[in-house]
Amino acid sequence: MEAVAIKIILVRHAKAQERGSAEDDSKRNLVEKGYKQAEKAARQLKVITEHCGNTYIWSSPYARAWQTALVLEEELRIKYVQQMDFIADGTAQDLIANIKVAGSTDCLIIVGHEPYLGEWVKAITGESVEFKKCQIAVLEFREGSYLEGSFKLLERE
C-alpha cells in the first residue's frame, strides 16, 4: 500500500502597510490591495485543493499573515485555521518537524513571510526562489519526507 502524500502549500502574506507604519512590525495590517490579492490567491488555491479531503491553514501570528489566512479561510470554506509561532521566523527543520505531527490532512496551507518561505524551499528542494506578495508554491511530502520533483512555484493571477 502506497504511503499517503500531503500537499504543502506555501503562501506569502498579501500586501500590507509599509514598514515603519506600525510601532511593532508584527502589527502591520493588510491594505485594500492586499485583501484583493488574497482573494485572487484563494481562487488559485481552490483549484489546487479541490481534491483534498482535509485542508488546514497554518499562519504566522503576525497580523498581515493572519489576515491573509482569514481571507483564504472564508473564500475556501476551511474550518481549521491556526496560528503557529514557528512560521514567523522558523527554520525548514521546524517546518518539517511540524508537518510530521500535522495529523490527518491532505493539504496544508501555510501563510508566512519572506525570507523564510524562500529559505524553506531552498533547504528542502535546493531551488532558489523569492516569493512575491501572495505568491503560492506547492510541495508534496510522503511519510514526512519531500517528494522529489513535486515543487511548483505558481505565478500570481
Spell out the blueprint of helices and strands:
Elements: E1 5-12, H1 32-49, E2 55-59, H2 63-76, E3 80-83, H3 86-89, H4 92-100, E4 107-112, H5 116-125, E5 136-142, E6 145-146, E7 152-153
Parallel strand pairs: 1-4, 2-3, 2-4
Antiparallel strand pairs: 1-5, 5-6, 5-7
Helix pairs in contact: 1-2
Q: What's a quick, concise take on this entry?
A:
The protein is α/β, with parallel strands linked by helices. The longest helix is centred in the N-terminal third of the chain and has 18 residues.
Could you name the key traits of this structure?
157 residues; alpha/beta; Rossmann fold; 7-stranded mixed β-sheet; 5 helices; 7 strands; 22% strand; globular
